[in-house]
Amino acid sequence: MLGAVASVAVFAVLTACGQDAPLTTPDGQVISTTTTRVAEVNIVNADRDYSRTCLAPTTPDDAATDVSRIVVTDPSLLDAICALGIGPKVTAVAANGAVPAYLGPQLTSVPVIGATPDAAAVDAADPDVVLTTPQTSATAEAFGDARVVTIEPGEGWEDRFGSVADALGRSASGSELLADFEKQAKRTGRFLDAAHNQISLVRFTGDSEVIAGTDTFAGQILGLIGVQRPEPQRSPESTTVTDENFTDADGDLIYVSFVGDDGLEHGSDVLLSDRWLNMGAPTWKRVLSVDDEIWYESSGLAAAWLVLNDVKESINGNS
C-alpha cells in the first residue's frame, strides 16, 4: 500500500480549484507544485526545463549542400539531432514510438506519422534526407527519391552520434561537440573529487531491483566523469539483486531510478523497507532519484549532458 501511495504522490499535480491558473501566495508569487520527493528520497532536477535540452545550432561542413528537411524512422536518432542543434529541420518522425519527453518542445512537437505513413503525410514531410536504422529501414522506402542514410548501432553512443553528424554534413561539429563533452566530464570529475566517491546505480522494475553495470549509459557517463563504483558493481553487465547480494546495492551515494509506474510502485516499497534503510547510504540520507529515461533509455549526447548536470548538482547532496 505504501508503494501505491507514493506512486500517486509522485504523479499528482495540484491545480487551483480545477482551473489551469497556477497557485499563488497572497502577494501573487507562484507556488511551485513540482513533486520533489518519492518515498522520502529527493528527486534530482525535479523541475528540469526540457526546453533547454537541445544545444546551439551547429555549422555544416559545407553550407552549400546543407540538409534542410529531415525525417527519422527511429526516435532514438533524435537525440543526436537535438545535440547538433538542428531539431527545427526535422519535419516528421516516421515511427510508432513516441518522441522522448526529455528532448523538449523542439522535437516533441514534430509530427509522428507512424511506421507506414500515408501519402499525405509523406508529401507534407517532403524530406531531402531520411535517417533510418537497420530495424526500421523498411519505413524509409515510403519516401521515394529522398536520400536514405542507415545509421548502424555501432559500438557505443558516441559512434552513433558521430554517424548521425556525418550523415547530416556536420562531421567537424560532431567531433568538436564530443571532445567538449569529454573535456567537461573530466573537469567536473576533478572539481568534485569524483575518484573518491563510490556511486551505486540501482534501477527498480515492477518486480526486481537491478544494479546497473558499467556498460549502461549512466555507467559510461559516470566512468567518463571519473566516478568510482563499489567493488561489486564493476562488471560491464547489470546484476539482479537477490537476498544474497542485497547489500551490493550500497555505496557512498545511491542513484535510484524507476522503470515505469510499476517500477515506481515496487521501488517505493523497497526504499521504505527496513532492510534498505539499514544500509549505509540510506542511513546517511545519501539516496537520490534520477530520471530512468534519461539515465538509461536514451544514450545520446543531449542526454549525456543532462546526466552530467545531474551529477554536478547532486553528487554532494542528500535525500
Automatic annotation (TrEMBL):
GO cellular component, one term: outer membrane-bounded periplasmic space
The keyword Signal appears for this protein: yes
Domain of life: Bacteria
Record has Transport as a keyword: yes
Keywords for this protein: Signal, Transport
Cellular localisation: Cell envelope
GO biological process: iron coordination entity transport
InterPro entries: ABC_transptr_periplasmic_BD, Bact_iron-sidero_bind
Ranges of residues in domain Fe/B12 periplasmic-binding: 69-319
PANTHER family with a match to the protein in the record: IRON III DICITRATE-BINDING PERIPLASMIC PROTEIN, IRON(III) DICITRATE-BINDING PERIPLASMIC PROTEIN
Similarity comment text for this entry: Belongs to the bacterial solute-binding protein 8 family.
UniProt protein name: Putative ABC transporter substrate-binding protein
Organism: Gordonia rhizosphera NBRC 16068
